[in-house]
Amino acid sequence: MLPAAAALSTAAAALPYREVAEGIFVRFGLHEEVTADNCGAIANIGFIVGDASVAVVDSGTTQQQGLALRQAIADVTDKPISHLVATHVHFDHCFGHSAFADLPLRSIGHRNLPRALAERGAFYVQLLSGICPDFAGTVVVPPNETVEDRLDIDLGNRPLRLKAWPTAHTNTDLTVFDPSTGTLWAGDLLFDQRLPTLDGSLLGWLEVLDSLLAEEVRRVIPGHGAVSDGRAAITAQRRYLETLRDGVRQALADDLDIPATLARLGADDLPDWQVVEDVHGRNIVSAYTELEWE
Amino acid sequence: MSPSQSIARGVRPRHLIAMTSVLLLAAAVLAFFAGPTQAANSAWDDIRQELYGAEREILPAEGIIALEAPYRALDAATVPVTVTSTIPQTEDRYIRSLTLIVDENPAPLVGTFHFSPANGVASISTRVRVNAYTNIRAIAETDDGKLYMAAEYVKASGGCSAPAAGDAEAALARLGKMRLKQLGAWRPNELSEAQFMVSHPNYSGFQQDQVSQLWIPAHYVRRIELTVGEREILSFDGDISISENPTFRFFLMPRGSEVLRAKVVDSENRVFEQSWPIQVEPSS
Predict the structure, then answer these.
(1) The domain containing residue A252 runs over which residues?
(2) Testing the interface with A: which of B210, B213, B214, B248 to mutate, by most A Cβ within 10 A?
(3) Residue B74: closest CA among chain A residues belongs to which residue?
(4) For the whole model, what pTM was predicted?
């Protein structure tokens, strides 16, 4: 049934899927840099099962991870896959899409996603090809449908509410809310344990955090980290982003350039976060080039 | 060296930018993803030949300029580079221009900054895109026509094909907006530092639209002129290897409460102009 299922050889593709709420299955990503061993299986990806069909939310970094996802779906249901959702442009979330290319499904992303994939796709492909032996055969597949603001879909007695956000973590952030279980699939708008990566707008992200967790949200699946009610995770992430904002604003007020700002803030002690190396420095550069235009 | 590499290397940098041929651009992209190259010197040999000819002597920069760049860049699209001049700008002897080169970029010539004695000192800080592990070079030309070169090796990749982090829509909405920041207190006829910024995506032309299969065309700042009163303070002829939102720190000797004017021309011949009254404190 699955053409290349036999080729699922790596530990990355074999990571288990767990049911975190009724009919919602998640493969939890590893808190590691991308390596030949993990082949970029660092993000949370998974699927939601309705009465009639299945929606995939993020597909992983490689075609193999996408195929493993298809196998995991086949292990729990024979319902067809009707929707493939990308929460944003980053390769660890939507570069497994090619595993679903033979299916007649609705592939959905933020309105900015096609352009963002065009801008970054070739770069990510080259980057990953040099790291990951599994990457052969993986191609970038843009969505066939985009979300301007909101989109409601239904998997059969299982309505899902998709929302496209203003620029925050990236300029392609899309969330999936499942009212049946009160579960918000937040993508990388929420990082837990792994240090957030800033690739969109620091000020925009802080603003989005104000409205990310509506009253009805009882459970959050972050892009990285554990499932929880989201409140503590969002507080920790806000603290990091606000500290970054305040530190960079002060550096700008002190007329520091980028190297001097990195020297001042780059050695910050961040004991609450994992995979900090390089990410914090890149976040500082990103925040600097945004906030210098305030 | 692969055939695609030799294609890219054989083309004058200027021509590379002017090219609209998808095939040649594709070849250039491949060339530069061919990885950390062992042929760093041959890239430089070609660039040197194009810019200066094989005969012209290039002296070591010690005692004239120093170049600072991070050995390992965190963000390849925003690599800070500082050239510090160690000689004063006087009428008798001054640095006429500083040229920045990133050997392994598809368009290696980042650009040339033009100075005069009015700068006091011909130092410059800016940010460049770096597409592969490469030497970065700064070449100073003094008023007597002599050339002095400093070089640093930088580990970074993908800076030309990956746009800088951020929001492309917000950047376009801000297209052509400028900022001038006076760093520290400025006093008449004393060395004063400024930061100039212009909002521009500086698209490299190395990104492909997956839907249309067309390359997103290069769109970049090609000239910047800064004047104070009637004096030309700094001009820059640039290319795609300057980071998004071109930004420079430089020096000048203000005479009093004058107006600093900026004129920016991009590759689509759009012209942006802005001016700022200079705030000057009494002489110390």
Answers:
(1) 5-291
(2) B210
(3) A282
(4) 0.88
